[in-house]
What we know:
The protein is of the alpha+beta class. Helices cover about 30% and strands about 30% of the residues. The strands form three sheets. Strands 9, 10, 11, 12, 13, 14, 15, 16 and 17 form a nine-stranded antiparallel beta sheet that branches. The structure holds adenosine monophosphate. Adenosine monophosphate binds near residues 136, 173, 176, 244 and 256.
Amino acid sequence: MKIGVIGGGQLGRMMALAGTPLGMDFAFLDPAPDACAQALGEHIRADYGDQDHLRQLADEVDLVTFEFESVPAETVAFLSQFVPVYPSAEALRIARDRWFEKSMFKDLGIPTPDFADIQSQADLDAAVAAIGLPAVMKTRTLGYDGKGQKVLRKAEDVVGAFAELGSVPCILEGFVPFTGEVSLVAVRARDGETRFYPLVHNRHDSGVLALSIASTDHPLQALAEDYVGRVLTKLDYVGVLAFEFFEVDGGLKANEIAPRVHNSGHWTIEGAECSQFENHLRAVAGLPLGSTAKVGESAMLNFLGSVPEVSKVAAIADCHLHHYGKAFKAGRKVGHATIRSKDMATLKARIAEVEALIKA
Ligand code: AMP
C-alpha cells in the first residue's frame, strides 16, 4: 500500500518510520527542497495548490493523509475527487480555524474559555468589554507554537492590537488561570472503533511544547475521553487526533484540536504498545487498531534549535534519540528524546539528565 502525505516534515518522517514495517510506501508532497521526510519516501516537490502535482500524487497512492492542518481547503477538495482522504475535508476545515473549532466545542457542550469572533478593532473593543482582561487574541488560522497570538493584559495592549496581528480574522479568548495543560491523543478507525492514549501533562516554554509526561490513572481521563469522543463522532473522524485542554478548577476547558499526529504524542514511539504514528496509519488504511496502553512511565523532551551530541543522549539510560535530520535553526523543532523508565522516580531523574544536556 502506498500512502500520500501532504507535508514532508518530521511528522511525515515518523509516520514513514512506523509504516515501513507494515509494508507501506510513502510519497510526500512538500514545496521545501530539504523536507526531512524525503529520506523515507518519494518527494514530490510542489506547492500545495499545484494541481498537476496533486493529480500525480493521487494517481500514485492508495490514500492521502496530512501532517499539518493548514492545508488549503481547495487542495483537500481537489484530492478527494480522485483518492480517499483521511481525515476528511470537513475535519480539516473545522480544525484549521479557531472560530469554527471553538464554536463546535460549544455546540457539543464542551467547556471553553469565553470567546468572540474579531473582524475589526471595533469588534475587539466590544469583545474586551464583554470578556474582560486579561485575554488572549489569536489569529483564526495559521497560528502555531504561540505564533499569531498576543496576550492582552491592560487597556493599552488593546489599542491597535487588531493591526498588530495583521488585520486578519481573529478570536479573542478569556485568559484561563490554568493549573496545568494536558492533551489527549485519540485514534478512530474507519469503522468508528476509538482508542485513547493516557492523558499527557505538557509544559510549554514561550508557547512551544518543551516536555510531555504521560499520566497513570489521571482523574480527568474519563472526562477527557468523553469530550474527545464527542468531537470524533461529530466529525466522523478517521485517524489520530490530539485535543489540548487547560486543567482548571478540577475540570477541563478546551483549548484546541490538531487533526493529525501530535508532538505531545511522540512519547508513544517507545512508551506505548503501538505508537500514535502506527495507529494513525492503521486507522487510515482500514487495519485493526493497535493497543494504546502505556509501557512503563514515559516522557518526551523537545530539542529546539539543535540536537545534543548523539553519544551524550545515548549515554542516558532509558533514553531514545529522535533526530529529524533538519538544519539547525534557533527555535526550530529538530529532534526529541523519548524516555521510558520503570517507575516515576527514575523517569524524573532521567528527565533532569536530558534537561541538563539541553542547557549545556
Ligand atoms: P495555542 O497555540 O492556542 O495552543 O496557545 C499556546 C499556549 O499559550 C498554550 O499552550 C497556553 O500555554 C497559552 N494559552 C493559549 N490560550 C490561552 C488562554 N486562553 N488562557 C491562558 N493561556 C493560554
